[in-house]
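Archive transcription. Copying these from loose printouts into the bound notebook so they stop getting lost. Printout 1 of 2:
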Amino acid sequence: MIIAGLGTILFILLIMVIIRGRFYRTGCGALILHEILLETSVVAIHIPLNILNIHSGHRGFFTPRDCAGIHFPFITTLMITNWAQFSLALNRFVATLYPHMYWRWVTKTAIAAQIAAVWVFGLVLTAPPLFGVVGTYGLDKTWNNCAILLHTVGPYPKIVGTLGVYLPTGLLMVLYLIMFIRLQCCSPQRVQNNQMRSDRQGQFDRRVKMAKLLCGISLWYNACYHPQNILSILRVPMYEQSVAGLQLWLRTVYLCGYVMTPMFFFSLNKDYQTGLLEIIRLRVHGR
């Protein structure tokens, strides 16, 4: 819970910097703000509730009726977050390699469509159990934690995992890999001569730096998220038996994957550093 509290404070500061500096008006700013708001809800609400559910499940703290309101928003937000990260990667891909087409991706209609698409897709993936289709949200009998209880053994969990986690993660990594290979093959000077006027070199450099920042965040997030999937695939006995200590440790590692996001922004981006220092200075002087 200490990590969640620290992460919430950092995310609130990051949101304040974005709004105060009006970074949401930039090409990918609205998408970044959307992603940050999603991750803030995960750190401040969903994961703490999930950890509380794991820790107190055997005490009967939650009832089956509570699970629809706890587990459904949790996994839906995770699915939406994964696709929102892919949307950001696609934005940086186009901005960096196809700047002449970029304006089409940052119109208000295009941004709204991208945000709406990830929400619709996330809801379509996780809503069926909410209406009793393929299963329901309830308490797992293993140790009384909220989960999706399937009516019959079927492919639904694999479909959700593939379309909500592995597909956006895989596509995201492919986009960043292609982008950085292209940048290595074509120096910034060459890209400038072929695609951009010389007076836009600074803008190109900022786009590349933001792409590297977002790629670093995605790599760290996936490094913290996938240990539980690896343990599941390897069928580690402690994971299969749902040992509470291991589950809590995995949730803590997963939480750290989110908490580092504001730290990436504040440590690797000068604009966000300046915005943070300005907020701190105003608070110190009581303005």
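Printout 2 of 2:
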Amino acid sequence: MTKHYILHLDPDARYEWDRCVLRDPITAERPDLAQLIAQTVGDQNGSYLISVRLEVDVLEHSPLPEKPSEHLSEPSMPAPLPQLEELVA
């Protein structure tokens, strides 16, 4: 069985559960790997000793966007507007 997922890694994520996320590319749901294995063995009652081989092929890689700098630059001031007297003259 071949399944495709999107793996999102962000070690700087605010919450621990967002640092490593595996999602279905169409539904964006997190896969239930135990359910996938149960479907493979036939959903029959009982306990199973199983062996699972995990083979990962990276099909595409998109780096995370750069985080904005924590240092704020000085706001630029707009050029002063001409005084009303200068416009009348």
